[in-house]
Design a protein that fits this description.
141 residues; 16% strand; single chain
Length: 141
């Protein structure tokens, strides 16, 4: 999942031999368009229309409830909050969200967890659909 991929990237930043004992580092988070073009090479991030379009609601609707996990949606959101947002908030170096397009829902929470946010005007929307839907925030917010 994207949560485990982001966690792996944060592990590398925290433990890479060239980065461990230095204060001269920053983390820049930006969106990436993974759509295939003619040559199967993703376009540069500057061409992407999304920083993040939030959580995958279609996946949530299909998520299987089990006895061990009666509410898979809440567990994924809480995992995102505790594993990603809390970690980004507490990193011992600067974090920057380079918002290169629409920033929606969980992606907006990620951007707000960064120390700095940069976005060009007229480049996308910043939106919390949860507010319009009357959804309550999960634990951790």
């Amino acid at each position: 999942t994207i949560i485990s991929l982001i966690n792996q990237a944060l592990d590398i930043i925290d433990s890479h031999p060239m980065l461990v004992d230095t204060n001269n580092k920053s983390l820049i988070i930006t969106g990436l368009n993974l759509g295939n073009d003619n040559n199967n090479v993703p376009p540069p991030a500057s061409k992407s229309k999304f920083f993040s379009n939030g959580l995958d609601l279609e996946w949530f609707l299909k998520a299987t409830r089990t006895k061990e996990n009666p509410n898979p949606t809440a567990s994924v959101i809480e995992s995102y909050n505790s594993h990603i947002l809390a970690r980004v908030l507490t990193l011992p170096f600067r974090t920057i969200a380079a918002i290169n397009g629409h920033c929606i829902g969980a992606g907006l929470f990620l951007a707000l967890a960064c120390d700095y946010r940069i976005m060009r005007t007229k480049r996308g929307y910043v939106q919390w659909p949860e507010a319009k839907l009357g959804m309550r925030l999960t634990k951790g917010f």
